[in-house]
Amino acid sequence: MVEMGMIKTAMDVLYKPDSSITRLLVMLLVNLTQLDSGIVSLLQIEDEKMQGLFVMKLVRSFCRSSDETRDDPFDHVGSILVNISKKEAGRKMLLDSKRGLLKQILRQFDSTSPLRKKGVFGTLRNCCFEAENQLQNLLLISEFLWPALLLPVAGKRIYSEEDASKMPLELGNVLSFEREPWDDPEIRVEALESIYLITVQEAGLRAFWSVNGPRILQFGYEDEEDPKVMEAYERVGSLLVHGSETSK
Q1: Which one of 10, 19, 83, 209 is least enclosed by Cβ atoms within 10 Å?
Q2: What global pTM score does this model have?
Q3: Domains parsed from the chain with CATH numbers
Q4: For residue 170, how far is the Cα from the chain centroid?
C-alpha cells in the first residue's frame, strides 16, 4: 500500500475541505506508519522541496482540533507522531528548532483526551533518545519541556512558596495550588524515562537542577504507589546522586 502511494493519497483526501472519512484516513496513516517505508513516505524524505510538509499539516491538526469534541479523529495523530519518532529521521524533523514541531506538540501535554496525552508523551520520550546530539534543541523549548515532564511526576502535594520560588513560573505557579492527579502510570513512566535521557547529559542535568527538578521528584516519589513508576523514579534518582557526587 505504501509503494502504491497510499500515504500521499490519504493526505490529499484528508485535507480536502469536504472530506467525510477523516477518522478512516487518520487510522490508515497510523497503520501505514508502523512500517519503515510508511514513515519514509510520510516524512517525504526523498523529496527535498516537500520534506516535512505532511508532518507539519498533521501536527497543526493535532494542535488545532478542540478538546471539546469528545471523539476527535485527530487525537489519533498522536499515534502517528509516536510511530515516526521511533526513527531517527522522524525525531530530527520533530526536534528541528526552525520547524518548531515538538514545541507545538508539547502544548497538548495536559489535554483532556487520554489518547492525545499518550501521543504527546510517547513522542517526547522517543525524541529524548536524541538528547546526546539534540539537547540544545530540547532545552530551547524548556518553558514547555519541563512542565510536560515534571507536572505528571510532581505528586499530589501543594508546594511551599520556598520550593516554588526556585522553579520557573510555569512550574511553580501550578504546583502552588491543588491540581488534578495524573492517573495514567504509563505517562508517568514515560515522563521519567525522558527525564533520565536528558539528565544523562551533563548540560541536561544542570538544566534539571536549575528548575528544582530533584525536589519535585523527591515529593513525587513519596506520593507514588505504582511499583513500575517507583522504579523509574529510582533510576533517575540514582543518576542524580551520582551526578551530584561527581560534581563535588
Answers
A1: 19
A2: 0.92
A3: 1-134 (1.25.10.10), 141-248 (no CATH)
A4: 17
